[in-house]
Amino acid sequence: MKKIAIFGSHHKSEQGASIKALILKLEEAGTPLYIERKFLSFLEQDLDFHPAICGVIDTLPEHIDYVICMGGDGTFLRTAHQIGVSQIPVLGVNTGRLGFLTDVDCHEASELITRLLDGDFTIETRSLLEVTEGNGSSPSYALNEAAILKRETGSMIRVNAYLNDDYLAAYDADGLVVATPSGSTAYSLSGNGPIIMPACRNFVLTPIAPHSLNMRPLVVPDDTAIRLEVDSRSRNYLLVLDGRTRTLPCDTSILLKRAPHTLRMIRLRPHSFAETLRRKLMWGAAVR
Question: A single Pfam family, by name (predicted)?
Fold first, then answer.
């Protein structure tokens, strides 16, 4: 019997009936369940629901076969961070708003979950960014993007970018986003970056509020090593990886490249990125 770990949002009580229905379906199938501690507390205290589980988890155990993420894109990114390099397949169930990464709507999840238990699904791989600080620390990983942002609101920062050690440009801006295809519909998109199909092997460098209007997003092959060096009056800057924020001194450079592993996303039905664009971003919709 496949073991399943469940991570979830702690703030979606309005979707309580659908959340309960999915977990009960797994219980009825005799599936060994391991539930994230904070999510279990939400189930018990907010939904008055006490599922039968094999264990409470804070991090993802190695013996898990599948991961189910119940929430929005923020919860999915947090779950992807938990999965790390293990490449355990993850199913995203949307209980949030947009849910660009969480493809299955919560109200239909209990009906589709039988496909997961029967092994009737496909795997879609998504590329990740590997991010290493200049001091040689262990690498971190991001599914959507790495963003270098100014720490103070009063002045810009300068980000000097190098592609395979070839100097590209100095970005005088509020920040610079390096996004994967998955992240091209997130923070980068708000900076007028292009949407990249998930199967494409590219990264996009998108400046945030650049001083010069000539500084435009740039798409590069994902086998490019991107080195970023920062100059700022505050002597520090923010490094944000999928919403996880760190403050670094300006003499710390950042090296970004494609990670050697991928995130494996479970698809319970045929998936069309074009349909996702129409449904999630309202492409072609007549809004009156």
Answer: NAD_kinase_C
Mean pLDDT over each residue of the chain, to the nearest integer: 93
Q: Cα separation of 11 and 114, whole Å?
A: 26
C-alpha–C-alpha distance, residues 212 and 50, integer Å: 56
Query: Any binding-site annotation on 190?
Result: yes
Nearest to 107 by CA among 87, 86, 93, 124: 93
Tell me what pLDDT residue 102 has.
87
Q: What are the strands, taking DSSP E only, across the chain? A: 4-8, 33-36, 55-57, 66-71, 90-94, 104-105, 122-133, 140-142, 145-150, 157-163, 166-173, 175-179, 202-208, 218-221, 226-231, 236-241, 244-249, 254-267
Q: Quick one: average pLDDT of 94-111?
A: 84
Quote the tokens at residue 67.
Answer: 């991961």
Count Cβ atoms below 10 Å from residue 158 Cβ, excluding itself: 17
With a cut of 80, say whether residue 11 has pLDDT above it.
Answer: no
237 CB neighbour count, 10 Å cutoff = 25
**Is 141 part of any known ligand binding site?**
no
- Are 222 and 202 in contact by the 8 Å Cβ rule? The answer is yes
Q: Domains in the chain, start-ordered, CATH in brackets?
A: 4-121+268-280 (3.40.50.10330), 128-260 (2.60.200.30)
- Write out the two tokens for 181: 């295809």
CA distance 244 to 232: 21
Query: Which residue among the candidates 73, 103, 222, 242 is catalytic per the annotation?
Result: 73
Tell me the two tokens of residue 235.
């002597």
Q: Tell me: is residue 48 an annotated ligand-binding position.
A: no
166 is catalytic: no
- In angstroms, the CA 279 to CA 48 distance is 33
Complete DSSP assignment for 99-152: -SS--EEHHHHHHHHHHHHTT--EEEEEEEEEEEETT-PPPEEESSEEEEEESS
Q: Identify the residue whose tokens are 């090296």.
A: 255
Residue 14 annotated as binding site? no
